[in-house]
Amino acid sequence: MKYPHAYPLFLIFIFCTSCGQNKTDLPKDNINSETRDTVTSYGPNTMVRNVKQARNGDILIASWNGVFRYDGKSFTNITSKIPSPSFWDVLEDRKGNLWLGSRDSGVYHYDGKSFQHFTTKDGLASNMATNIYEDRAGNIWFGASRYDGKYFRNFSIKDGFPSNNIRLLLEDKTGKLWFGAHLENMFVYDGKTFTVLKNKDGKAFNNVWSIIEDTKGNIWFGATTIEDKRGDTSFVSQGLWRYDGSIFTKVSQRGAYAIIQDKKGNIWTTGEVNSNVWALSRYDADSLYNTNPTVTEIVSGGPALLGILEANDGSIWFGGLGSMTGVYRYDGKTITDFKSEEDKK
């Protein structure tokens, strides 16, 4: 499938990265407030970019009007004390602390009592933190910035990276680091060499937002490939890809913005079906490695469906915007919309 290069509303933001130096003057000020967090019976009523799960089982939701924690009964906006809280991602690190990636005001670290705020003044490559990842060594990555608990290190083409606009998406079982880049090529680092990955036709995988490693060690990712360029217009082909260590296989023409594998071995994606419709899709485990695996479309909407999570109870959570703004839970039969009745109208 080929069509003019077009991106949904949430991709209009431009990534700003720079090659920063390590910083020792990290902020000492914490954001404290005697005001209690906002607790409601309803979830966020704005775009939800990512959904994660805390170690205690709570659902963590990064939305345009705050980061929410759902304990099974109520939603708590843990960022109600932060001015203009618009967030892209949330992560609980191995120490139990939360990291919150914002739209345009940097990163927040939350220890359960107070927030510590990091921006470009403190060493971040960009104040837009769309992806947060913790590697095996315990380093926290925010796009081109890696934080080791004391210092930030920013990576760019000056360090040998193929791109300035990187986001670390996966450290696989062998220790290789898989990077996506905003509107640029996907590449992998094996500890010595950076390799830009290409399909059998020699076309690089572009604009990768999500990568996972399945239980068999295959790498799954959603990507576009540029098929043709005419002036300033690029014609692209999108899809879900699988890499077995030697061969790239295009599994589906459906886009794959977010990817997870559930406990039963099924692959779930959110992604673009056409320029106006996105879908939550399930690729069944029994046919996963067939030429044409069985795919079931659970729900569709637009202009985007975004982050996905399988909760401990097996339910699938996902976020979106437009016709499916907010956060949703699919229990295998029913999709629950957590917005208030007023917000559903």
Task: Give a topology summary.
Layout: E1 3-4, E2 30-31, E3 38-40, E4 48-53, E5 59-63, E6 66-70, E7 75-77, E8 87-92, E9 98-102, E10 107-110, E11 115-118, E12 132-134, E13 140-142, E14 145-147, E15 152-154, E16 166-171, E17 177-181, E18 187-189, E19 194-196, E20 211-213, E21 219-230, E22 233-243, E23 248-252, E24 258-261, E25 267-272, E26 278-283, E27 295-301, E28 303-310, E29 316-322, E30 326-330, E31 335-337, H1 341-344
* Radius of gyration, in angstroms, nearest whole number: 20 Å
Largest sheet: 5 strands, antiparallel
N- and C-termini, Cα separation: 35 Å
CATH class: Mainly Beta
Uncertain regions: pLDDT < 50 for 5+ in a row? 1-29
Overall helicity: under 10%
What is the tally of helical segments? 1
Number of domains: 1
CATH architecture: 7 Propeller
Question: How many distinct beta strands?
Answer: 31
What is the percentage of strand-forming residues?
A: 35-45%
What is the CATH topology?
Answer: Methylamine Dehydrogenase, Chain H
- Oligomeric state of shown chains: single chain
Write down the overall geometry.
Answer: globular
**Mean pLDDT, rounded to whole units?**
89
CATH superfamily: YVTN repeat-like/Quinoprotein amine dehydrogenase
Structural class: mainly beta
How would you describe the overall organization of this protein?
The protein has 345 residues and is an all-beta fold. 1% of the residues lie in helices and 44% in strands. It contains 1 helix and 31 strands. The strands form 7 sheets. Strands 1, 20, 21, 22 and 23 form a 5-stranded antiparallel sheet that branches. The protein has a 5-stranded antiparallel sheet with strand order 2-11-10-9-8, with no helix packed on it. β8 and β9 form a beta hairpin. The chain is globular, with a radius of gyration of 20 Å. The two termini are 35 Å apart.
